[in-house]
Structures are given as structure tokens and as C-alpha cells.
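Bug #77: duplicate submission created two jobs. Keeping one. Sequence:
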Amino acid sequence: MEENQTVVTEFILLGFCLGPRIQLVLFLLFSLFYTLTLLGNGTILGIIFLDSRLHTPMYFFLSHLAIVDMAYACNTVPQTLVNLVDDTKPISFAGCMTQTFFFLAFALTECLLLVVMSYDRYVAICHPLLYTVIMNWRVCTILASASWILSFLLALVHLVLILRLPFCGPHKVNHFFCEILSVLKLACADTTLNLVVIFAACVFILVGPLCFVLVSYTRILAAILRIQSGEGRRKAFSTCSSHLCVVGLFFGSAIVMYMAPKSQHPEEQQKILSLFYSFFNPMLNPLIYSLRNAEVKGALRRALCKESHSQLV
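Kept job's structure:
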């Protein structure tokens, strides 16, 4: 097994089976998405850092989500862009394993952060008088750190299970990046253990947390409906709807990708599903939180006004 695996020096990423003109269009489109992702999430980070009014638990977790989205994009998008203009589309074996590891780590981190953010909203709306006591900075730091550490440990488990497999050829990954299921198809050994661990991780990281989020928001909705003030209800709905949009986009695409029967989703369709959490979600998250959140929009206006004022002076 070790002799077979040492032969592998690189994989070939097949990417999208399209003509050169369409691939050029995709290159320009994905480059735009990548730029918007970095600018959008970078802006969110900058606003949260500069505006003291946003130094609250909610925006503390949102800043972690922005970091994850930027790291997510940086892990997969540059290689995808290179593949769109390079006919050979090679990636080293070490590079492929590294990309798989970080893809899993950032995906799992985002799942857990979204759950933590839903818990934060639940405490803020259902137990407002105890919010500062329950969600103190020590608790917030522990929750954020636990999300990162647990995610990287789980990703490491998947990586170790992949590295024990021999890859005898062909070494062509039918995807635009080293996605774990596509890599496993190249192994010339039984991958049942890998698939069982992936399914168990999906139940633990996707289905379980999603159920927790749904229960939390059911109670949040009941609490919002009891608010007497129309302005209070509007503000609560605005904040929570932003988070629900992100949760729906991420969990929906991930569950369909990793838990739906594969016969219903051919490989080309799986690539399209992968675009949601590789390109669209990281790009849309800052837009959703900025366009639907009055506090973020207010902080952005204050930052722009302060900048224009300083230039005039």
C-alpha cells in the first residue's frame, strides 16, 4: 500500500467540461466573485473592528464567520481560476491533501459558528435581561475557540483516513478542487470506513446543529410575536432573518451534497452544488448581513462619513 501511494506525485483536476470560451467567461465571473468575497468580508471585519458599537457577542461571532469565508475562498478559488486557464490542471498530491483538509476544516467551522450565532440570538431575544451574564466575553471566546479546534480535529481525522488509502490510478479528480468524495473515488481500496465517518460527521455537524437552530428559531419566533412594540419586532426580525438566510444557504447545499442519494445527483450536478458553498455563500454572507442589518449599515455610513469628513479637513 505504501509503495503504491508513494508513486502518486500529483492529481489532475478535470474541472468543468466546457469549451475554452465558456471557461474564459467562468474565469472572469469567478474572479469577480472572489474579489467581492474578499472585499465584502474584509469590509465587515474592518467595520466591526473600527466601530465600538459593534463590539458585542453577535458581531464577535460575525467577524469569525467573515474570517472563515475569506479563508474558504482563498483555499479553493485560486486553484480553480488557474485550472480554467491551464489545460493540464495539475495539483500536487500534498497540495491536494492540504486543500481537502482546509476545505473540511473551514466548512465544519462555519457550521459550528452558525449554530453558536443562533444560540446567541436565542439568548438575546428570549432572555434579554440575562444576556450580558450568559453571553459574557469568556463564554464567547470559549464557544468560538471550541468551534475552530473541534473542526480542525475532525478534519484531521478525515485526512488521516484518506492518507491510509493507496491511489493506484487514474489520478484524475472529476471536480474543480480536491473535494473529499471525488478524491475517495480514486482510491484503489475499500473506502467504506471513510464514507461511514463522513456520514456520521454530517449527522453530527449538519443534521444535529440544524435541528438545534430550528428549535432555537421556533422559540425566537414565539418570543418576537410577544413583543409589544412594532419597532422592536421589526428589529428582531431583521437581525434573525439575516442569520436564517445564511443558515438556509449553507446547510441546504451541504446536506443535499453529502447526505442525499448520489444517484440523484450526477457528478456535474455535484460540481454546481459545490459552487454554492465554495463561491456563492462566502460572497453572499457579507451582503446579507450588511443589507439586512440596520446596525451594520449604520456603522458603514458612519465610517464613510468620517472618512469623507477627514478628507475635507
